[in-house]
Design a protein that fits this description.
Order of helices and strands: EEEHEEHEHHHEHEHEEHH
Structural class: alpha/beta
Radius of gyration: 19 Å
Helix content: 25-40%
Number of strands: 10
Strand content: 15-25%
Largest sheet: 6 strands, mixed
Bound molecules: adenosine-5'-diphosphate, magnesium ion
């Protein structure tokens, strides 16, 4: 089953000469439980695509269909509930509430929904992310890496159908990155969660089941290996004489 479908999605900013085609006709399907990595250079449209998938922004044209439903047909309130129940967001900026401790930040979306947190699962997440000693700490007492782990814990705690992550390990050292990715993957497999993750790190992208590369708002069709092929051809063209 396709939990997520994107059909000819376009997002244009500005007019005339200054128009930017952030997304220029993206179509893709993501199966339930799939782990998809989105790679591409800065400005290629990755964040815009993720925002559209999560209903955080509206496209110029095209459709985003989640679990068979075109999300553009949802009212504002329905969209808010949809995001809270179905989507776990992890951004590069952590978006933690500064006046709430770690535990309260993690369970906030669940409580907003009037649901009692699954304490055993929250505990497992805290332990897996190395946050068990920090549950009563305030965000400003944590390092950037720790804050990002809290943000990931918050996204995982509600067991959302889809996790949308924009450079989730951008501020973590490589060991912590692998730990966090490992937990994300395990959680995905255990709960049949679908993960769409933006990264510029090829090693991290390799942990995904499928990789797509964006270029100028389009899906680049000839990149089996993230980065490699493009880098090699680019480099060899540039340094032509050396390789000839
Ligand atoms: N709100 C906005 N207004 C104008 N241009 C934007 C806006 N958001 C993104 N863009 C432009 O759209 C393109 C894609 O941006 P983005 O999706 O953030 O790329 P990426 O995440 O791959 O770095 C870039 O050229 C960016 O400058
Ligand atoms: Mg981005």
């Amino acid at each position: 089953m396709n939990i997520l479908e994107v059909k000819d999605l376009k997002k244009y900013y500005g007019q005339g000469e200054n128009q930017v085609k952030a997304l220029d006709g993206i179509s893709l399907s993501v199966k339930q439980g799939e782990f998809l990595a989105v790679v591409g250079t800065s400005g290629s449209g990755k964040s815009t695509l993720l925002h559209m998938m999560g209903g955080l922004d509206t496209p110029t044209s095209g459709q985003v269909i989640v679990a068979g439903k075109d999300i553009s047909t949802l009212s504002r309130d329905e969209l808010t509930i949809f995001r809270r129940r179905k989507i776990g967001f992890v951004f590069q900026s952590y978006n933690l509430l500064p006046l709430m401790n770690v535990y309260d930040n993690i369970v906030l979306p669940i409580k907003l929904d009037g649901i009692r947190p699954d304490e055993t699962y929250v505990e497992q997440i805290l332990v897996s992310l190395g946050l068990e000693e920090k549950r009563c700490a305030m965000p400003n007492q944590l390092s950037g890496g720790q804050q990002q782990r809290v943000a990931l814990a918050r996204a995982l705690a509600a067991k959302p159908a889809i996790i949308l992550a924009d450079e989730p390990t951008g501020n973590l050292d490589s060991r912590t990155s692998m730990d966090v990715l490992g937990l994300m993957k395990t959680s995905g497999e255990r709960f049949g969660q679908t993960i769409v993750m933006i990264t510029h790190n090829d090693e991290i992208a390799q942990m995904a089941g499928r990789i797509i590369r964006l270029e100028d708002g389009r899906i680049c069709g000839h990149c089996g290996q993230p980065g490699r092929r493009q880098e090699v051809s680019h480099e060899s063209r540039r340094a032509g004489a050396f390789y000839a």
